[in-house]
Each structure stands twice: as C-alpha cells, then as structure tokens.
C-alpha cells in the first residue's frame, strides 16, 4: 500500500490523531523560517510515547548542522547527507515549471529516496501543486527510487494523485490544517483513508 506521511506537526494531540488515523510517518519541521517550526528544545521524545512504532522525520530546508536528531529515525532535506550522518535520508527535490523528465533524472542519480515538492516561497508547506504528469513519468522510469509526492495534497485530491502518479508515498502538511501548525483531524483522517483506498483500488503495491 502507498505510505502516508503527515508533516508539519507541532502538537501532541495532532500526533495522536495522525497515529490513530494510520499515518506511516510523522514529520516535524526544523526550518526556523517556517510557521510550523518545532524548536530544538521541544521534548520530541514525548511523541514516542504515543507513536512508538511510527518513524519520526526531522524536516529541513537546507541542512542545519548541530540540530539534535537523536529522537528522529529519518532526515528530510534539500541537501545530500553530510559525512558521518547515519540517519535514513530523504532528499527533497523542488520541482519547477522549467523541469523536465531529463532534468529530474539528472538531479537524482545518487539518491534512493526522494520527495518531490513544488517550488515556492520558503522550503515547503506552501500548498502549491507540482505537475503530476511529470511526476508520474518520473516514477515510471525511476524504478531504483522510492518517490514521495508532496505539494498541494489534501483529502480532496490525494486519491487522484495516487492514481495518476503511483508514488511510494504521499506527504501533506498545509492541506490538513485549520491554521499553520494546527491539524484538522477530520481532514487528516480523510487524507489517510482516501490515499490508502485509492492504492487498494489500483492494486498499488509499494
């Protein structure tokens, strides 16, 4: 089944809701310019108490050295991992209207997991949608890659996104909110349900 990541979490009650809804990964923003920024002093380990078997992902724009990452299993970042970094790494690729299949292939030659997001102000969570046709073509020819689709996803369009792109996973943040950093639990549940239902419908086995 397609995996579902809920990103931009800032509150314990939203972590509980995402976990209960069946999210496969939880994202916490470590980029200070984001309205969803989670301070380095926040006791992230508390989230393990309600989601002990769900991967916690530290989400960067550019990588910031020195950020405490002991509570996280994965790092999502625009940069390649620095020397000596042992976390599981998800490389963020911002897709612009100028990108082509060839340019995306050239930018991801050394990666094993990539997250495709739309170019916009800041480093994500803008609610902007990228070209699903291009993303679907990229998935089809990138069998060595696990592709996570982000950018403008929500409960109303995630089923179509799964059907058209057939990604390894989908990722949403602003499309599940009532305000920045505050999740709408009904939208969150519908997003997870609709993504996984669409995957079952097309027999998608990731």
Structure description:
With 206 residues, the chain is α/β, with parallel strands linked by helices. The protein contains five helices and ten strands. Strands 1-2-3-4-5-6-7-8 form an eight-stranded parallel barrel. The protein has a two-stranded antiparallel sheet with strand order 9-10. Strand 7 (146-149), helix 4 and strand 8 form a beta-alpha-beta unit. Helix 1 (12-21) packs parallel to helix 5 and helix 4 (158-165) runs parallel beside helix 5 (185-202). The radius of gyration is 16 Å and the shape is globular. The termini are close together.
Element layout with pairings:
Elements: E1 3-6, H1 12-21, E2 25-29, E3 56-59, E4 74-77, E5 88-95, H2 101-107, E6 113-118, H3 132-141, E7 146-149, H4 158-165, E8 169-172, E9 177-179, E10 182-183, H5 185-202
Parallel strand pairs: 1-2, 1-8, 2-3, 3-4, 4-5, 5-6, 6-7, 7-8
Antiparallel strand pairs: 9-10
Helix pairs in contact: 1-5, 4-5
């Amino acid at each position: 089944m397609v995996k579902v990541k809920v990103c931009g979490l800032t509150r314990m009650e939203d972590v509980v809701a995402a976990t209960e809804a069946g999210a496969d990964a939880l994202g916490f923003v470590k980029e200070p310019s984001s309205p969803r920024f989670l301070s380095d002093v926040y006791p992230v380990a508390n989230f393990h108490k309600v989601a002990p078997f769900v991967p916690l992902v530290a989400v960067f724009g550019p990588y910031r050295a020195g950020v405490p990452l002991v509570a996280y299993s994965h790092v999502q970042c625009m940069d390649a991992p620095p020397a000596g970094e042992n976390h599981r790494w998800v490389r963020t690729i911002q897709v612009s209207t100028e990108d082509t299949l060839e340019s995306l292939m050239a930018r991801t030659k050394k990666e094993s997991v990539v997250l495709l997001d739309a170019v916009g102000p800041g480093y994500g969570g803008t609610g902007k949608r990228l070209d699903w046709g291009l993303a679907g073509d990229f998935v089809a020819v990138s069998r060595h890659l696990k592709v996570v689709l982000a950018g403008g996803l929500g409960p109303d369009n995630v089923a179509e996104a799964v059907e058209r792109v057939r990604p390894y996973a989908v990722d949403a943040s602003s499309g599940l909110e009532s305000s920045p950093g505050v999740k709408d639990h009904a939208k969150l549940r519908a997003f997870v349900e609709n993504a996984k239902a669409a995957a079952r419908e097309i027999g998608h086995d990731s």
